[in-house]
Design a protein that fits this description.
With 365 residues, the protein is of the alpha/beta class. The protein has three domains: 122 residues, Udp-n-acetylmuramoylalanyl-d-glutamate--2,6- Diaminopimelate Ligase, Chain: A, domain 1 (3-Layer(aba) Sandwich), CATH 3.40.1390.30; 104 residues, Udp-n-acetylmuramoylalanyl-d-glutamate--2,6- Diaminopimelate Ligase, Chain: A, domain 1 (3-Layer(aba) Sandwich); 99 residues, 2-Layer Sandwich (Alpha-Beta Plaits). Helix content is 28%, strand content 27%. It has twelve helices and 15 strands. The strands form three sheets. Strands 5-10-12-13-14-11 form a six-stranded mixed beta sheet. A five-stranded mixed beta sheet has the order 1-4-3-2-15, sandwiched between helices. A four-stranded antiparallel beta sheet has the order 7-8-6-9, covered by helices on one side. It is globular and about 85 Å long. The chain starts with a helix and ends in a 12-residue tail after the last strand. One of its GO terms (cellular component) is cytoplasm. One of its GO terms (molecular function) is metal ion binding. It comes from Apibacter adventoris. InterPro entries: DUF34/NIF3 (IPR002678), DUF34/NIF3_bac (IPR017221), DUF34/NIF3_sf (IPR036069), N-reg_PII/ATP_PRibTrfase_C (IPR015867). Keywords: Metal-binding.
Length: 365
Amino acid sequence: MKVGKIALMLDKWVPESNAESFDNVGLLVGNVDEELTGILVTLDCLEEVIEEAIHKKCNMIITFHPIIFSGLKSFTCNNYVEKAVAKAIKHDIAIYAIHTNLDIAKEGVNFEIGNRLNLKNLRPLISKKQCIKKLHTYVPFVHFSSIQQALFKAGAGEIGNYKNCSFRMDGRGTFLPTQNANPYLGNINNLEEVEEALLSVIFEDYKLPDVLQALKKSHPYEEVAYEVYTLDNENQDLGMGRIGELEQEISEEEFLLKLKNNFLTPCIRHTVLRNKPIKKVAVLGGSGSFAIKNAISQEADTFVTADITYHKFFQAEGKILLIDIGHYESEQYTKNLIYNYLTGNIGSLPIYISEYNTNPVNYFI
């Protein structure tokens, strides 16, 4: 198995196009044609992790946080980024980053946090917008079913928990084949009128190339008429953070202890306790203070995230219990998420979870 095959597999799972515009995901270092000897999964790709990969005979590292984020203007090994990249190149180790595209995935980072807290009815805290497209195309009646099924197979027509969704409206189309045309129906220079159906489906934007390819391959016409629109609908599956409910409400103290035990954090920062039970919980792994207002507007009892600054804590205004469990602590199980996906889809290739603790924050207790 080659590096490129793993990259394609990961892109199909959580498409690179779903990452935020500021992010840097995908294959950052390495050759797509390199034969794999093993994969190491890590949260951060530091020089020590490269050493671990060498020791475990892995020539590909899949990291959650991109080691190259803002670009490299020089390459002199004067900082931790350049040292790690240099060592990877020297030992022919590929580095693949999978970051905000996994953050927003239906069963991504925040879904994993919600699962570990046993939250039910999980849905996005901030749904992704402008990522759903609609296709209109016009097909002869006799080909309607075959084209419809081809589009479904390409991933179109999926809405929430429903598949194979489409709309049909019958009508009549006209066309006049000119001298160089090769029409499926009709004759050159004769105006033709044909019974056609409007076929309409929606799909996530990253599927556009596959959907159009399926349309053109299955459609009988030499020139296929179609329109693609971007919808304002929010995506029901993709988005930053997750919000859900505990099966039974518990006290604030019980919830804090649950967090401490489940996320192995020696220190939890939080706003003043409100002496109200916890039932509805919002979560966002990593730096999530930008979503405080979203959690409040959706009437969450608490919002669990990380990197909340002093002044951001004031935004609680007594309406919510804000909890900061630490950046590393909130995302630490992302390694397990990636590992479980790979082991479930790859045969005998050795895959390891990094044993090196990359958390740069230490606690004096």
